[in-house]
Design goal:
mainly alpha
Length: 180
């Protein structure tokens, strides 16, 4: 029951609205914000949970990306989503490597990883799982990073354009009133 309440809160309209306004009101260019989202999503899928911040922040600096969204983008993999994403990611990776693994087997193996989220626990799963994990992660990372970049870029540009148009109309209205 607690998980379902957490999930409802996590995906509520109020929460999505908060993140929308958090994104569009960030300082910096739309490209910088979008790069932050892309870096965060890339790291979120590519790097195992628990080590993502160590990678996301230096990559944000390297790519001149928004650090806040580089960090928050990594939360795509969290305690709610890992039980679904990681087994699917491994299954996808195993299919890409032409050696499909059972999704049921992968789900069971990742339960132990959730109890101990470390590189040691990941590598204890064996190369039959670790290699597909990174292959599937790389595939998902590229797809979601590209989609996240273009979605964030479009959202920020559209918001700022609308805001600029509203400001321009308000100033024009004030100017016409002063001329009267």
């Amino acid at each position: 029951m607690a998980k379902s309440l957490g999930m409802k809160k996590y995906f509520s309209g109020k929460t999505l609205k908060f993140w929308y306004f958090k994104m569009v009101r960030q300082s910096g260019t739309p490209e910088k914000i979008a790069r932050g989202v892309a870096v965060g999503l890339f790291v979120g899928f590519m790097i195992p949970f628990g080590f993502q911040l160590i990678v996301a922040i230096p990559l944000a600096i390297l790519f001149k990306a928004n650090k806040f969204f580089s960090v928050t983008g990594t939360f795509v993999t969290n305690h709610f989503t890992i039980p679904f994403i990681y087994p699917f990611q491994c299954y996808l990776g195993s299919c890409l490597l032409l050696s499909p693994l059972s999704l049921k087997l992968l789900t069971g193996q990742f339960k132990s990883l959730l109890r101990d989220p470390s590189f040691e626990a990941l590598f204890e799963l064996g190369h039959d799982v670790v290699i597909p994990f990174f292959a599937g992660g790389a595939f998902l990372a590229v797809i979601f990073a590209a989609a996240g970049y273009f979605a964030a870029l479009g959202i920020v540009i559209q918001y700022r354009r609308k805001k600029s148009n509203r400001l321009r109309k308000a100033l024009a209205s004030i100017n016409t009133e002063q001329e009267k």
